[in-house]
From TrEMBL, chain A:
Pfam families in alphabetical order: CMD (PF02627)
GO MF, any single term: peroxiredoxin activity
Domain Carboxymuconolactone decarboxylase-like: residue ranges: 55-137
This protein's UniProt keywords: Oxidoreductase, Peroxidase
Signal sequence range: none
PANTHER family: CARBOXYMUCONOLACTONE DECARBOXYLASE-LIKE DOMAIN-CONTAINING PROTEIN, SI:CH211-175M2.5
Protein name, per record: Alkylhydroperoxidase domain protein, Avi_7169 family
From TrEMBL, chain B:
The organism's place on the tree of life at top rank: Bacteria
Stored NCBIfam families: CMD_Avi_7170
Gene3D superfamilies in alphabetical order: AhpD-like
InterPro entries for this protein: AhpD-like, CHP04029_CMD-like
Name of the molecule in the record: CMD domain protein, Avi_7170 family
Length: 191, 199
């Protein structure tokens, strides 16, 4: 029996994740499943071996994710895409997702203390005009009903973002409304 | 030539427009958001989660976000499925009962407990349970949980779905469908807002 030690606060530490329903055993994975995993190494992850029960959806989801966050030939810097992911996760309450993307935001921005304030104080933390605009837009987009509006666009523009960068904020924040719901509902984080 | 891009269609993005060009710079994301949609709504294997069930859950999930081109699209999709009309009436009534503001929910006991926020615990009305059936009743209640109070999800919710006849694979696809729609409805809303700001 595995022992789960759930974190009770948001953190940039590395966390584990334990599934509530059975992932596929690694020995049962076929080429169809490996195509769904995209990276073969993901067969070691309980989370991905659970999602690979529907390989076509996982493959498309993974490739959507990678392009939104890793395609940095142009557009919003990676740090701020990760900030949108971390802010969305903080607001939705996904301690696991927030830990991963807060770490990435810290790595790429070198602003670890500011990222930690987002985790500690919540999405109202004052992180300066540009980050505040990204966090506020992400939060407005995560609300249901969706609260994202022309004021968010105006604020992002005042902070210096062009339309392509604003689309990167929209994509990054919207994607974490997908990711958070999977991580929160199919299992739980463990320290 | 594949199907028309669903996000572009719902967001009203015309070929040759500024937003079309911006979306083309994230071609993998654009194409794979489309492939996600197709994998969920035109799957190679619908054995664990039928097409009709997918249409019901999608109409409910998008309708709970309020009226939008996305909600209208999935409502039409449900109306077009066999026996969809009576189900659509039931779903429209359940959307009205389930509408609220999220996210809310509780954190594990500790320093975050001060952020706990109570809200509606949605249950399908007794009068509509017969038309929906046990599987869909469980699916709608789970979808509402995922949409509005995702941090309240617990292992007991998995057991409720299993008890209602969902397989583990069906639960994964159901979760993906609700979570994907949470993404799709937001991308469309965001792009529409940006387009309007430029008009």
């Amino acid at each position: 029996m595995s022992t789960v030690n759930p974190p009770v606060a948001f953190t940039q530490d590395e966390l584990g994740w334990v599934s509530w329903i059975d992932p596929l055993p690694e020995a049962e994975l076929t080429e169809r499943h490996y195509a769904g995993l995209v990276d073969r190494a993901r067969a070691k992850s309980e989370y991905f071996r659970l999602l690979v029960r529907d390989p076509e959806v996982l493959e498309a989801r993974t490739k959507t994710d990678k392009d939104i966050f890793y395609n940095v030939a142009d557009g919003l810097p990676r740090a701020e895409r990760e900030l949108a992911a971390a802010a969305t996760s903080r607001y939705n309450g996904c301690i696991y997702c927030a830990s991963v993307h807060a770490r990435f935001a810290s790595t790429y921005s070198k602003r670890r203390d500011d990222v930690q304030r987002l985790l500690d104080e919540g999405v109202g933390a004052d992180l300066g005009e540009r980050w505040n605009a990204v966090v506020k837009a992400s939060v407005a987009l995560a609300a249901t009903p969706i609260a994202f509006g022309p004021d968010n666009i105006a604020e992002l523009r005042r902070a210096g973002l062009d339309d392509a960068e604003i689309v990167d904020v929209i994509n990054g924040a919207a994607f974490f409304n997908w990711a958070n719901r999977l991580m929160l509902s199919l299992g739980e984080p463990s320290k | 030539m594949g199907t028309q891009d669903i996000i572009d269609t719902l967001a009203g993005i015309e070929p040759g427009s500024t937003l079309d060009a911006i979306r083309a710079r994230r071609l993998q994301a654009r194409e794979n958001a489309q492939k996600s949609y197709l994998a969920l709504f035109e799957p190679v294997d619908a054995g664990d989660f039928s097409l009709a069930e997918r249409a019901v859950v999608a109409a409910f999930a998008t309708g709970l976000h309020g009226e939008s081109p996305v909600a209208a699209f999935y409502r039409d999709k449900l109306a077009a499925t066999a026996d969809g009309a009576p189900l659509l009436d039931a779903i429209n009534a359940e959307i009205e009962r389930g509408k609220t503001s999220g996210p809310y929910g509780a954190y594990p006991a500790g320093p975050l407990s001060i952020e706990n926020k109570a809200g509606l615990i949605y249950r399908v009305s007794a009068e509509r349970k017969p038309v929906l059936g046990a599987r869909l009743v469980a699916a709608l209640e789970h979808a509402h949980l995922l949409l509005f109070q995702p941090r309240d999800a617990a292992s007991a919710d998995m057991k409720a779905l299993l008890a209602a006849g969902w397989s583990s694979t069906g639960i994964v696809t159901l979760s993906q469908l609700v979570a994907f729609l949470s993404f799709q409805v937001r991308v469309v809303s965001g792009l529409r807002t940006l387009a309007a700001a430029n008009a």
